[in-house]
Amino acid sequence: MQAFTTNHWCYLRGHPPHCSAVLKSTPSDFQVTEIPSYELSGEGEHIYLWLEKENLNTAFVAEQLARFCKLPLRAVTYAGRKDKFALTYQYFGIHSPGNKQYEWQKFSLEGVKILSARRHNKKLRTGSLKGNRFTITLRNISAPEELESALKYVKQHGVPNYFGEQRFGNNNSNLSLAQKMIEGETIRNRNKRSMCISAMRSWLFNEFVSQRIAKELYNSPVEGDLMILSGNNSFFKYKHEDVTIKNRLLCNDIQISAPMWGTGTLASAGEIYELESNLARQFQSVSSQLEALGLKQERRAIHLQPQNMSWSINNEQAKIEFELSSGCYATSVLRECVITTPISTQSRNEHNENTAE
After folding, report:
1. 167 and 269, same domain (yes or no)
2. What EC number(s) does this enzyme carry (predicted)?
3. For the whole model, what pTM was predicted?
4. Which one from 83, 225, 242, 253 is the annotated catalytic residue?
5. What distance in Å separates the CA atoms of residue 83 and residue 340, rounded to the nearest whole number?
């Protein structure tokens, strides 16, 4: 039986942070702003809504927009799911051919403000972002000096590109579903099924990254490694005599990669091929399940370098800002800097009730 634990993955500095703090005491303590990858044309059959969302699930907002527009849910898209307990600024796409006009000021949903609406000639697809800008407030910091030191280290050295805790669900609920799937249970809810498959695949990727750190194979490539080009999914095999690789790594032009497991032959070679193959065999139930689902072998960078990172620390409170590429997790950045403790669900509900009053 597979045990899906998530608290054992290695830290880049070899130990957990020596600092703790409260994260998300209010939704505005975790702000996310999408960075689009293209300019909108102003015409076309797709309407891009730029909206502010607070304390709401992305999929739920999409459902409410579809209902308001009297369109099927498939006509409403978004570039990426965002945290529910957060203040987010993001695009939603509405497929609405013709010249139909909507009175967006009449759309009423507590926690949502539509800031602008503009047409475009292409559909808004999942992942069609340059990245996200994060503004995070930490409170009740136990050791401000330790946090300052950790932030400086991360700004210079980056962090492991782990999938964050959101991917695995509250109390690893998505991984619990994955366990049931491995044991033969059918997950009929399409959305839950998709989330548990993603969680399973992401968990195995994190295992690959953690093992490379443990074996001191994180920072330097070895012959047979697959180097992924920053900004796309193209990769090439590293050869030891290529003296330009280290400079390109330092410039973040390329990154060492690890498998997003699926069917097909591993393209890595030598020591890295053996490492990846052995780990897949170690977690045979997971790798076999991913293959049976028809997922294809892909690669993902093992290193994450936050961009435009800055912070201010005032006594027991800190404000941290940085940008990440699409598909990367702010919680993975924080993991190397501070042990965060979210306030309880009960406290959140009490806070929300007091705020509503």
Report:
1. yes
2. 5.4.99.27
3. 0.91
4. 83
5. 16
